[in-house]
Write a structure and sequence with these properties.
Monooxygenase
Length: 102
């Protein structure tokens, strides 16, 4: 456990700024929010989220990703791209459970 804490501390000291740490933490929390729903969909073979929510979620992630690639400084987009890609895949997987499970 101490090795993991040491490695995490070393990583945090190497990052460029506190805002980068906040960006990573925000992205990680936004990615984690989809995991319980993925688990429920996997175990029950259905998704209880509405089609409208899933479609809007996927489109929001896709368009935000495209905007980020075009407009944001390329050195700082890794946390955002991590979130956009993971959440887009999560929305598509949940949509497939919704579509195929019902």
């Amino acid at each position: 456990m101490n090795q993991a804490v040491l490695k995490l501390g070393t990583f945090l000291f190497r990052v460029q700024s506190d805002y980068e740490v906040m960006g990573w933490l925000g992205s990680i929390f936004l990615v984690i929010r989809g995991i319980p729903e993925l688990y429920i969909a996997y175990t029950s073979n259905t998704c209880s989220i509405t089609y409208a929510f899933l479609i809007l979620w996927a489109l929001g992630e896709l368009f935000s990703c495209m905007y980020t690639i075009k407009k944001v400084d390329k050195r700082n987009i890794v946390p955002l791209m991590f979130k956009y890609i993971f959440n887009f895949i999560t929305a598509i997987v949940l949509f497939s459970y919704k579509f195929l499970g019902n």
